[in-house]
Amino acid sequence: MNNYLRKATVLIVKRGAEYLVGRIPYSMEFRWSTSPYDAWGTRDREKAEAVAGKLGGDLWLWNPVAGQLREYAN
Question: In which domain, by residue range, is 65 found?
């Protein structure tokens, strides 16, 4: 069970009080949400850092199973 919780943790991008959901199709705009449950998540640190850098956001660790959110520290 503990291993399942660890694998459920993903990196998400937060900018201000909003979380990145994704890019709007056929547009160069991005969709944002106030809920981390809506956020795009990845376990690929390099990809997450690239997206956060491009959008001016910060990386956060998010575990939707446990409902835990905390700032990512390299």
Answer: 2-71
Count of domains forming the chain: 1
- The answer to whether residue 59 scores a pLDDT higher than 80 is yes
The pTM of this model reads: 0.91
Cα–Cα distance for residue pair 35/46, rounded to 1 Å:
23
- Which token pair is 2? 């503990």
1 has a pLDDT exceeding 90: no
Give one DSSP letter per residue of 12-64, joined into a string. EEEETTEEEEEEPTTSS-EEEES-GGGS--BS-HHHHHHHHHHHT-EEEEEET
